[in-house]
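User: My collaborator sent over this chain with a note saying "see what the structure looks like." That's all I know about it. Can you take a look?
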Amino acid sequence: MGGKTPQTFANHTRIDPLFHYVLLPLFALHFFASGWKVVRQPGVDTAWMLVVALAALVAVFKIRLYALRVQDRVIRLEERLRLSQLTPEPLRSRIDEFSEAQLVGLRFASDAEIPRLVEKTLAHKLSQADIKKAIAQWRPDYFRV
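Assistant: Without extra context I'll predict from the sequence alone. Here is the result:
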């Protein structure tokens, strides 16, 4: 494991310090400062700066969301392949019934508990959070951005 803290449901979310503590606050502060300037000094120039600040803030969020979306697609592919190898035939034929969110939740389950958790998820239509809470033996994912 290389000195990493074992992942659990309680600590599996990841903060990217440069994004969450530097980039996002700077762009948000710039947006609010531009809004304040429009109020204090109304004009075409200040209004345009507010529009540009809003566009930059939206771009920061979209760039982050695009990266997460690509990761979800890769996880979906990996988990479908993993489920096809670890589940018995009656369950294997139902892999396409899983939502992307369910597959993302299942990625943390150990190989040993996958068949039981797959069956439970299909029977009870568990949400991503419910799947994660039901995992007894956590399989860490340290690569999520």
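A starting point for your reply to your collaborator: Residues 17-134 form one domain.
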